[in-house]
Write a structure and sequence with these properties.
Elements (H helix, E strand, L loop, with lengths): L2 E6 L10 E4 L8 E7 L2 E10 L15 E4 L2 H13 L4 H8 L13 H5 L12 H16 L3 E6 L6 H14 L3 E5 L6 H12 L3 E4 L5 H13 L4 E4 L11 E7 L16 H12 L2 E6 L4 H6 L1 E4 L10 E6 L10 H13 L1 E6 L8 E4 L16 E2 L4 E3 L6 E3 L12 E4 L3 H11 L4 E5 L9 H11 L2 E6 L12 E6 L3 H4 L6 H13 L9 E6 L5 H7 L3 H15 L6 E9 L3 H13 L5 E12 L2 E10 L2 H14 L1 H7 L2 E6 L5
GO cellular component, one term: primosome complex
Subunit structure: Component of the replication restart primosome.
Organism: Gaiella occulta
Length: about 650
Amino acid sequence: MPLASVYPLVSTRALARPFTYEVPDGVGKGAVVAVRLGRSSTRGVVAEVGVEAPSGISPAAVGKVLDRIPPPLVDLALWIADYYGSTPARALELVAPLRRAPRGTRPSPAERESLAGEPEPGSLTGEQRTAVARITTAFDEGCGAHLLLVGPTGSGKTEVYLQACAAALERGLGTIVLVPEIALAPQTVGRFRERFGDTVAIMHSALGEAERRDERDRIASGEARIVVGARSAVFAPMRGVGLIVVDEEHDAAFKQESDPRYDARTVAAKRAALEGAVAVYGSATPRPESWARLERIELSVRIGAPMPRVRLVDLRREAGYPLSAPLLAELGRLADRGGKAILLLNRRGVAPALHCRACGVSRRCGSCDVALTLHRDGRLHCHHCGFSEPVPEACPACGSSQLAQIGAGTQRLETELERHVPELERIRLDADTAAEPGALRATIERFRAADRAVLIGTQMVAKGHHFAGVELAAVVDADTGLALPDFRAEERTFQLVTQLAGRSGRDAPGLVLVQTFQPEATPLRFAQRHDVAGFLAEEIERRAALAYPPLRHLVTVVASGPDASGPARLLREVREGLASVDAQVLGPAPLLRLRGRHRAQLVAKTSEPRRLARQAAALLAAAGPALRKSGLTAVVDVDPQSL
């Protein structure tokens, strides 16, 4: 029997290499097989057939074939392990997940989860035709391409995706469509099902195990030639991929926050390169990295309606918070004549903190260095570790009863609206209301069907939704993001305001109100003018001076442990071990304590992210026994989205 290199799906770094096994004839790259490893059994993935046996080794035979995955996915997984400093086993589990449930007769999740689609327009704009032509030319050239489709909300980017998908199907090629969050999947699935019917499959983490298997089988068999889903859909077992669409490509949700810490946007580019496919990244507010590195296709105007007017409301001159006088006046007009509004406040709960006026102490989580958030259930909650406690009657520190609520969250905003404009139906969309299965779709449909209503929510409400009849959009507190100690703070504030503005006035004149204590802030000035190119030019110039992306890559190493000194000590040793890599390494610096563990961070700016991540991972693997003994853990993150 031929010999093959097989990666056992065992995550320990001590076994992060291939082993040689005998395989039956006909078993090729991408086969998932049962293998013996010492005294235990596990799954393995065949990476290469026709190898030589190591000297003095008599290879064992593999067991039965359990599954098969497309060979390009094996190469993709091994690249992920290398680039992101992970192990081959952890990366291969992304493309060869364990399959337990037998296939049964169940409704298609794509059918169940999709919202109503839209009919095909009678004609395309000239810019849309140019965009579709550029993509189809790339299909016919057969060497792949990475394209950035830029255009304001309502400029017809989705129709370009649909037309490009049709062109791919005509050529016998499949399409993967990535959206940043499950919240956007029902609307996107509906649009593709309206055009392409049952050939559309859906993939995301909220599906049950049996449904995930059903969809994977439909994709692997070729029954489904279009896949819509969140970041994990980039690993769909589709053969003959011709098009990968990354919609709302600016969104940080494309970054996986557990090992392997891959970025689905980067992985989409690599998969497209491996398969000779076309990757199209779309956004009204693209990342500086995409703007600087990709070939751009521009849709310059909104179809059917002008962009809404954006007005900055200076909260330094307003007595009301969270509802200023201008915002209340506009909501009152909607209450009188009918219409819809969207209000964005990127904080949950009633108030972000409970503060003692006597001693100045805020109630904080005992396990995390964060203030507890007051919720309507009469309890204080930690949004990091899940701890909660009843609201105290007096300050635990000094005994004073002078406890004040600081700031506002979506629950308080909902209460204020009920008091001031009870005529408007109040619909809240945040992580609390969307937790139950089907709740998100029900919330969206309820808002769509309403006559006069206000949708209150966190950043979910600004992402990609197309609601008819929205005349008013408001950012209740634009300063929330600007205050974060992250070099992307201005970029994200600009994106959030501009994206929310796109929800207003899609089919009628619209207005956007932005409440802020900093009306002179750069991202707000550019957002007021809808000036995407101007903001990106200034942002890239600022980052160039500081050697931030897109000029260089970032790699972080975050360590955590039971005491304050351990993480910093470990990171000083890691920093010494990275001296041979071309990088500017900053830190270690302390981070917030989370879940009872102290944390610290190194930040490296480098042009060699793969080499640095590989070196850092090797250092941590070598220190593994000592780390386990001291209770320390450390993770490497390439291209982190938050510092």
